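Lab meeting notes turned into a lecture example. A postdoc, R.K., suggested we walk through two folding results consecutively so the class can see how the record format repeats. The first protein's sequence and structure tokens come next.
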Amino acid sequence: MGFGVSREPEGISIGHDGSNEGYRIRFVALPLVGEGVVILTNSDTGDALTPLVIDEVSEILHWPGSGWSTPLWAVMVGFVVLAALAAVLVARMRRKRRRLQMR
């Protein structure tokens, strides 16, 4: 639940992986580069393939280091940032709705 965030010498990378029975997914994105990759597999063992695909894409696109781990503090920071962003957006939508109702 949430994004993994890794601080790299060249910037940060974000990622997430997930699964359902029979499926695996992983994405990695480099915000400063403006690129990323999403891998969807239709196998319970598909997560064995995803690091190889990410490494190949990274090499082809000449990405800076994109290995990432998810320290607990980074996950918590991500949750806080996303919650704050959601709260701001909801508040703005409510204010806008109230203004429209007053007209």
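The second example is placed directly after the first for contrast:
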Amino acid sequence: MKDLYMPFGKGSRACLGRTMGLMELKLVVAMVLGKFVVVVPKEAEAQDMTMEDHFLAQPRGKACVLAFRERGEL
């Protein structure tokens, strides 16, 4: 699947800002996970999260239901 993931293009026409974009993405994810805890809510059903393998992998239920709770709420 990694071979099919090309959000920044490939070859001589690849995006010049790829390295910076990936760095910013990692930074934002780290900041969000530092402030919030990600929880799977009770209404999410296990069979909906089974992966289907198409061109891109996706959950069978076509949605990834997650709840973000601030770390102070636990």
